[in-house]
Structure formats: structure tokens, C-alpha cells
Write a structure and sequence with these properties.
The chain has one helix and no strands. It is mainly α. The radius of gyration is 49 Å and the shape is rod-shaped. The relative contact order is 0.03.
Length: about 120
């Protein structure tokens, strides 16, 4: 078989095909590198999000601890108010009992006085 002689057009096609393949490989590599960078960037952003969320949660825990402390203080004050109201109630109860007994005694005396038995 006879070898075909390469022409300028043949060389142009070969060079064009070579440049296309090199360009395609570089684009693929660039795309892979971009994807790798994108994944890395996303990983950094996610990590930062977790760190920020952790800080916010720590802040909320601190706020909740403060609220718990405040609630203990409020409960203590309410217990003190309950104790004071109980003492006032006992004083009024005893006073009213005495007044009712005196009124009953006076009503009995008035009945006896008017003989309304």
C-alpha cells in the first residue's frame, strides 16, 4: 500500500483537533478544579454556620440560665407574699371569729332582754 502524502489541509485538521482536545481537557480540568473549590467553599461556609449556630446556642443557654435564676427569685418572692397573706388571713379570721361571737352574745342578751326566746 502506498502511503498518502500529508497535505497542509490535513495538518490543519490534525492541529485543530489537537487544540480542541487540549482545550477540552483544560476545560474539564478547570471544571473539576472549580467543582473542588466550590465544594471546599461550601464546606467552609457550612462549618462557619455550625460555629455561628453554636455561639448562638451558647448565648441562648446563658439567657435561659439567667431566666431560671430570675424565676427562682420570683418564686421566692411569691412564697414570701403567700406567707404574709396567710398571716393576714389568720389575723382577720381570729378577729372576725371574736366579733361574731360578741355579736351572737349581744343578740342573745337582746333576745333575753325582750324575752323573745
Amino acid at each position: 500500500m502506498a502511503k498518502k502524502q500529508t497535505t497542509i489541509d490535513d495538518l490543519a485538521v490534525i492541529v485543530k483537533k489537537g487544540f480542541y482536545e487540549v482545550d477540552h481537557k483544560m476545560a474539564t480540568m478547570a471544571t473539576k478544579e472549580m467543582a473542588k473549590n466550590l465544594v471546599n467553599d461550601l464546606a467552609v461556609m457550612v462549618q462557619k454556620g455550625f460555629v455561628d449556630s453554636g455561639k448562638k446556642i451558647d448565648g441562648l443557654k446563658s439567657d435561659i440560665d439567667g431566666l431560671k435564676s430570675d424565676m427562682v427569685e420570683v418564686n421566692d418572692r411569691l412564697d414570701s407574699i403567700d406567707d404574709r397573706l396567710d398571716r393576714i388571713e389568720k389575723i382577720f379570721s381570729v378577729d372576725h371569729k371574736n366579733r361574731i361571737e360578741r355579736l351572737e352574745f349581744e343578740v342573745k342578751n337582746l333576745k333575753d332582754l325582750f324575752a323573745l326566746k
